[in-house]
Amino acid sequence: MDAKHAVAIIGGAVAGSEAAHQLTAKGIPCVVFEQNALPYGKMEIGLPKWHFKLRDRQEKIIDEKLSHPLVDFVPNVKLGRELDIHDLIDNWKFSAVLLAIGAWRDRPLPIEGINAYVDKGLLYQSQITQWFNHCHDPNYKGVQYTIPYRNVIVIGGGLASLDIMKILIMRQILQRLQERGIEYDALRLEKIGVPQSLANLGLSWDELDIEAPTLYVRSSLEDMPLVPLPDDATEAQIQKANETKRKMMAKLQEKFPFKLRTNMQAVDKITEDGRLTGLIMQKTQGEGETYSTIPGTDEEVRSELLVGSIGAIPEPLPGIPMKGEIFDVVDYNSGKINHFSNVFALGNAVTGRGNIRQSMLHSKQVTETIVDNYLSLDEDDYAKIFDARNEQAEKRVSFILQSIEEQKPLSEAELRYIKERTEALQKQVGYSGDYQKWIQAHLPVRLEKIVGFE
How far is CA 72 from CA 7, 18, 313, 417, in A? Predict the structure, then answer.
């Protein structure tokens, strides 16, 4: 064998496939371990299905990178389940382990004990989006949800929560239409909006007897991350941005009727008979990143369904040190994980807040947590996010390569051992080694194919 090193990559989506692309270009074999059957991450689960053209384009790019002869793909295995970080380093003897893992865990609502009510009046954004993206598929085996027509509330404020509002309203409409025996689909509904769709069907919003969902945000509308601003923005620029935000929100609410209540924060839960039935809200005051509740402004808000949409964070992994909600990284350039000499994070190593457009335009660095929150942007913005994610992975791999090259080369026996264990694990999960054949066998049924939407 000509190779002197081998690298394990945990996660095969945008960052993981780009890392594999960069490493194989240097002649370094990679084993890409993916927790799902498909390596596409949140493009399948989080990117709303109305962005199907962008999804297909990005997934094709991933396929091209993971089809390289020096890449061994292993689906349906997970770190902390079939894989152990110390086993990968000490026994498999990989030259490096790269964590290209997305933010798969919803950030909990900051109310003590509230997660005991998940699926009992409380859902999180990942549950909603995963179901919405695949509920049309006759082969879908996940949980099916019915969205209530009254008292649906969302706690959010970021751009991801606007996608959630659209999804909830669209599902309410589609449910009502189905009750009337009317066939309609989410793609047409998203493209032309609720009022025009109903008008085309000879219906009105009032006829459907739906109470619009309400989005509660802790900030003012002006502090919601909807419009980019430079750090040294002038008063005139701020005023113009605020006016743009108001127009954007009004346009969105016109197309997808929902209610918005700003300067409100949940401080406690209301439960009845083992279910979450509402929240105690308080008004807030502040600006920028600093908001606080106002004592004595309690308000009971009843809910039949509450959706938490305040972001996503990395899932804690056995053996990987954490620092708060993120991986404990000691070197940002390479993503090196604390207490390890050859484990690096490509995914959610660094957290951040703010507007994705602003991050791209002014800092040229897109923090992974923002990316993984699958922001409610148009397709051009999504494409920029993926491009920026690729760029960041490429930069980190260049630093990682330096670390790999300083290590002792693997022997032929060690490289052969990695290959043998990889093939054994592939056989265990039923993967034949034919990447394209596996992908085609596991792609879900696409809504645009069912309805003939282009």
Answer: 10, 14, 28, 14
